Amino acid sequence: MGVSQTAERTASKKRSPKGGIPLSAAMILVTLGVVYGDIGTSPMYTLKAIMSGNGGLTTMSQDVVIGALSLIIWTMTLITTVKYVLVAMKADNHNEGGIFALYSLVKRCGKWLIIPAMIGGAALLADGILTPAVTVTTAIEGLRTIDFFHAIIGDNQGIVVLITIVILCALFAMQRAGTSTIGKAFGPIMTVWFLYLGITGLVNVGADLNVFRALNPLRGIMFLFNGNLNHAGLMVLGNVFLCTTGAEALYSDMGHVGKANIYASWPFVKVCLILNYLGQGAWILANNGNAALAATPELNPFFQMLPEAVRVFAVVLSTFAAIIASQALITGSYSIISEAIRLNLMPHMRIAYPSETKGQIYIPLVNNIMWVSCIGVVLFFQTSSHMEAAYGLAITVTMLMTTLLLFTYLSKIRRKHALAVPFLAFFMLLEFAFFFSSLTKFMHGGYVTVILAALIFAVMYVWRRGTAIERTQSVYLPVDQYVDQLAELRADDELPYLADNLVFLTNDSSPDHLDRDILYSILDKRPKRARAYFFLNIQVTDEPNTHEFSINTFGTNFLFKVQIRLGFRVNQRVNEYLYQIVEKLVADNMIAPQHHKYSIYKKKSSVGDFRFCLIRKVPSSSADISAFDRNIIMAKYLIRRFCGSPAHWYGLENSSVIFEYVPLFARSKRQHVLQYVELPESVRHVHDEIESANATYVEHASGASADKPDQDEDIDLFDAAVRKAHDDEARAVEDSVIGGDTAVFHPIVLNEESDEDDEQ
Questions:
Q1: Would you tell me which of 201, 301, 709, 720 could form a disulfide with 275, CB atoms 3.0–4.6 Å apart?
Q2: Cα separation of 392 and 441, whole Å?
Q3: Three-state SS at 541
Q4: At a CB cut-off of 8 Å and minimum separation 6, what does 585 contact?
């Protein structure tokens, strides 16, 4: 018989609107501060990199400038606007974006789709580690262009590295405040930044209105394939790609700010970016014959197009913008990891929700790993020029994988075949060209990003395959078939009570089945007698403050399958909630009062003690499993230990917890059958031989023989007391082993509990 109860419901439930976070001026400000930092700083270096790769200022003729600007504008339009804002953001999973959210929508369309999802996710996370390091270092080095800051920093790169590390520490330390808080702090700065980009670009574009011809995409195509104009060839795309590196982060951050706020803010951001690029292009055309400027090392039109009096403000503002640019990748990484956990690609981690909005999350372990990794990258590369060599390579891989998944979504889920095929052909060709051009960065630092991505992919692969191997061994048994045995165990006076309430945590959400390992632990492993057994499953809801539970009693007053449903902001301290549940069961006469005989309190509680049993599986040495799969399982358990204990996740640090180990694999390799062999005739008289040996030993000890056994030579170096102690020990061993009870060989039982205990 099943009984359902509700312990507590919130007075008011504020459900997120169907479209996610609603449109508002405040959230648009947050969006500007959180989402566009990476793509918003691209004008600082994109045209500079293209000009440097083409041979410098003097080579930048009108056709070159217009062609390069056309490539920038249409790359940003096609990839950021069309692919991500107009197409990818339609493919949301409960208002969450990112490559894993996209995979969760299409995973039923083919098992192979997990591979591009894992590759793309790993590459994006690797790029997220590199981006804060390169942007902050670049900003700090840019301060040297101002005399005041150059007097402080000088040419000492060690000072730059130190300042960069301090800023990174402050940036990652403030993540615990939450996306909303950070966005409100960064939003006004980024608003000023984009207004600055648009205004400075608009002021300079009057120098040569021909730059508006760059809006024609044919000018970009002509420039790309004309060797007389484009000296870098297709490799120029590696520099052009810098204008759109924040597009994937924009998609990943959708859950933090809501798609409506991105739709509303992106046109403003894009117009400001295009105006700034056009202004830089007009300045280049107006000054491409200036020999003095052409001789300037590391000439950057972004700063040079400004009057010197304004340049100080530009550099300081750029420094803040570059720091904020890291935020888009950091918050995007939280979203990616959160989705990966749900897909069993990453281990369970503690997730904090600093606000009432589910999409705005903070994962302490991920934050700390990125923190340490970013500092490691800064210490390894030292300078921004070395870091930039690795920048952008990984994100091209992510974009290719996203295109594959979007094609599947359009063709299989949305059934828009006429759109899906051209979409795949066009964007695969375009992004593969960017990927090919970015490969030139591999030997100049790109290998670091590849190594980071490979390590992250390995973690995902190990966790995914390890989970699949575990599930092949999972067997769920109907609880009602074991009620009689559990009742008999509960009434067995020959066994002491282990606890008043014995609690098992389980991932199984079914109301009437249990994992075989739990029943095995109670009945077979070591019979566990308790007054009541609780099998507890925790579910996290999409609402912030849910407090609910349901119970199946199986028609008993001692057996309870409990599901607790908690809001995503609720602290999962299950011991406190379980105490409330038992109190309610006692009050409703569904369980007998569990009075304490002894207590420090005047009024004794009717709720007894709790013991929590956490079952951990270990692969048996005799399990029928390949060496590769065994190593996968061991690697998964190593990762799990690094990510923390379930006792910490569920607030059981101060509770009575039993960790019990059970074999992962029930099926073992075929064992050899032992054959009985009768002892030979000569061994039957072993007792007589021993007596004879003892007589000889006594003769030697008394001096009747001049020879002594070799093993006694060291003993004779000590006094008579040591000799006596040795002799007493020899007699004790003879009495207890030779001819004693332990000489009887107990039968060896294979594949039974004793073997498992030995393995543990």
A1: 201
A2: 9
A3: coil
A4: 551, 560, 591
Taking only the tens place, the pLDDT of each residue in 222-249 is 888 887 777 767 777 877 888 887 787 7
Q: Is 451 exposed, middle or buried (0-12, 13-18, 19+ CB in 10 A)?
A: exposed
The residue type found at 137 is T
Q: Spell out the domain ranges in the chain.
A: 25-130+187-314+387-467, 476-595+605-664
φ and ψ at 613, to 5 degrees? -110, 115
In whole angstroms, how far apart are CA 109 and each of 28, 256, 344, 733? 35, 28, 18, 70
CA pseudo-torsion sign 147, 148, 151, 156: negative
Q: Tell me the C-alpha distance between 315 and 296, whole Å.
A: 18
Distance separating alpha carbons of residues 101 and 89, to the nearest angstrom:
11
With a CB cutoff of 8 Å and minimum separation 6, the contacts of 347 are 341, 463, 639, 640, 643
Neighbour-count burial for 69-81, b at 16+ CB within 10 Å, e otherwise: bbbbbbbbbbbbb
Answer whether 604's CB lies under 8 Å from 580's CB. no
Provide the residue type at 605 as one letter: S
Contact 450, 394 (CB under 8 A): yes
Residue 270 carries which DSSP code? H
pLDDT in tens, 623-657: 666 777 778 888 887 887 777 666 666 666 666 77
| Predicted TM-score (pTM) of this structure | 0.70
CA dihedral 139, 144, 146, 152 (to 10 degrees): 110
Contact of 633 with 469, CB cutoff 8 Å: yes
Helix (DSSP H) and strand (DSSP E) numbers for the chain = 30, 9
Check residue 85 and report its DSSP letter.
I
Instruction: Write the DSSP symbol of residue 235.
Output: G
Give the whole-angstrom CA distance, residue 509 versus residue 166.
46
Q: Residue 445 is which amino acid?
A: G
Averaged confidence pLDDT in the chain: 74
> In which residue are the tokens 């390995």 written?
458
- The set of residues, in sequence order, having a beta carbon less than 8 Å from that of 575 and lying 6+ positions away, is 610, 612, 650, 651, 652, 655
| Residues sharing a CB contact under 8 Å with residue 219, sequence separation 6 or more, in sequence order | 63, 66, 67, 70, 213
